[in-house]
Specification:
Layout: H1 2-5, H2 8-13, H3 16-36, H4 42-51, H5 56-66, H6 69-81, H7 94-130, E1 135-140, E2 143-149, H8 150-175, E3 177-178, H9 192-202, E4 205-206, H10 217-243, E5 251-252, H11 272-293, H12 304-333, E6 335-336, H13 338-345, H14 354-363, H15 368-384, H16 389-392, H17 397-400, H18 405-410, H19 421-429
Parallel strand pairs: 3-4
Antiparallel strand pairs: 1-2, 5-6
Helix pairs in contact: 3-4, 3-7, 3-9, 5-6, 7-8, 7-12, 8-10, 8-19, 10-11, 10-12, 11-12, 14-15
Length: 444
């Protein structure tokens, strides 16, 4: 299932071969910067490029002996490049290569994730406009409140997702940071202009100051942005799960031909995609906690963060990519039942119109305390059974004295609650009409 939704490009970013290729790219860029200073012959760079091919299996074999991944990598390069390899890693420390390469790969992963965020935004916008005027009951504490529209719910999700995009763009900028400043970050063996050259070529900015590593608050911010996004996806998916409950059944995940819901109960149609997204959000959030614990390292550096990042960064980026793709697909095909939404609005026999009735009484001269008491008393009586709320108000003198039959009837019009929906949509989407691609699209 992961393979179905997670694009091969993002997965390939975290393959060992790609990591080593990026290490070599950083090493060669340092050589290029030094060649411009006359410290490395250009011919050596050409020889390395011509002779070297990344061989992850050989690097693994060497690492079993060296117990050091960068040294194993350099030895594998030396075996192929010969004497020209002596110009590699001049004045560098391992973290110059590791952290700068990781930044480059995290930026690429971020760009892939941003594509999926944009796709989800497009789906949410289209479905929000489709259901802008689709009435449904709003709920607080799980209890019927007042009418809203399904489109407003989706507009809120769209607005929330735009904040995640903006937040993730900021963390992308924060992680797009390299360092070629040596073992203690003091440029003892290489000048800052070498770092500037390498970072420019990689689309990164130099860390203004570093020790042996790029400071891990940057990585923690990136993983935290992913965790926040995962949490909102869980929120959206949880709502779908609630709305698909048999007693509610206002929306439903698509159920494809041949799909099965239960090994024991043939009738089951379960919200499995939403449940899957909710479960994976827990992993992404837990990874963000590990990223925050990586911030505190000893002195100028230890390696307690390294083993953690080898797991949490690839996992979180691939999980978010998968969750976004799966949820966008779910929302594009979500089945919506407007008739059931309307039926649920009437489920309480008009109790949901209590506030409107109370406010109308106040506006027509009734004291607020008296109006609240009368409306609540009738609502509680209706809740216990017998005559519905709509009928009970017709026999309450406090109400009939202040409101005409027409005014009382108007209090039970659900469309009165959605008059400002166009204004909400203009705030969220910046226009009063649906985009042409979605205008006139039939409801599910």
């Amino acid at each position: 299932m992961i393979d179905r939704y997670s694009r091969p490009h993002l997965r390939s970013i975290w393959e060992p071969a790609r990591k080593y290729e990026t290490w070599l790219q950083v090493e060669l860029l340092v050589c290029e910067a030094l060649a411009q200073k006359g410290l490395v012959p250009a011919s050596a760079i050409r020889q390395i490029k011509a002779k070297v091919r990344i061989n992850p299996a050989r690097i693994d074999e060497l690492e079993r002996v060296t117990k050091h991944d960068v040294i194993a990598f350099l030895e594998s390069i030396s075996e192929q490049a010969g004497p020209a390899a002596r110009y590699l890693h001049m004045g560098l420390t391992s973290s110059d290569i590791l952290d700068t390469s990781l930044a480059r790969l995290m930026v690429e992963a971020a760009d892939a994730i941003l594509i999926e965020i944009d796709r989800l935004l497009a789906v949410l916008e289209a479905r929000a406009w489709e259901h802008r005027d689709t009435l449904m009951i709003g709920r607080s504490h799980g209890i019927h409140g007042e009418p809203i529209t399904f489109g407003v719910k989706l507009a809120i999700w769209y607005d929330e997702t735009t904040r995640h995009k903006a937040r993730f763009l900021r963390t992308r900028a924060g992680i797009a940071c390299g360092k070629i400043s040596g073992a203690m970050g003091t440029f003892a063996h290489l000048a800052p202009d070498v770092e500037a050259y390498v970072c420019h070529k990689l689309g990164l900015t130099p860390a203004p100051a570093s020790n042996q590593v790029i400071q891990r608050d940057r990585h923690a911010a990136y993983l935290t942005a992913l965790a926040l996004l995962a949490s909102s996806l869980e929120k959206f998916a949880t709502e779908i799960r609630h709305l698909q409950r048999t007693e509610v059944l206002e929306v439903e995940e698509p159920f494809t031909p041949g799909q099965k819901g239960s090994s024991a109960m043939p009738h089951k149609r379960n919200p499995i995609a939403s449940e899957n997204i909710c479960g994976l959000a827990r992993l992404v959030r837990s990874n963000s906690v590990a990223a925050m614990e990586n911030v505190a390292l000893w002195h100028e550096r230890d390696i307690s963060h390294s083993s953690v990042e080898r797991v949490i960064i690839p996992d979180s980026t691939m999980l978010i990519d998968y969750m976004l793709a799966r949820f966008a697909d779910l929302m594009a095909k979500l089945v919506v039942y407007p008739d059931r939404m309307r039926r649920n609005i009437e489920l309480t026999g008009g109790l949901i119109y209590s506030q409107r009735l109370m406010l109308e009484l106040v506006q027509h001269g009734a004291p607020r305390v008296q109006a609240y008491e009368a409306v609540q008393r009738l609502a509680m009586e209706a809740w216990k059974g017998g005559a519905p709320f709509r009928e009970r108000i017709e026999t309450e003198t406090c109400i009939t004295r202040h409101l005409t039959a027409q005014a009382r009837s108007a209090c039970f019009d659900p469309t009165a609650y959605t008059r400002q929906v166009p204004a909400i949509f203009k705030r969220v989407f910046g226009r009063r009409r649906a985009p042409k691609a979605t205008r006139g699209r039939p409801s599910s």
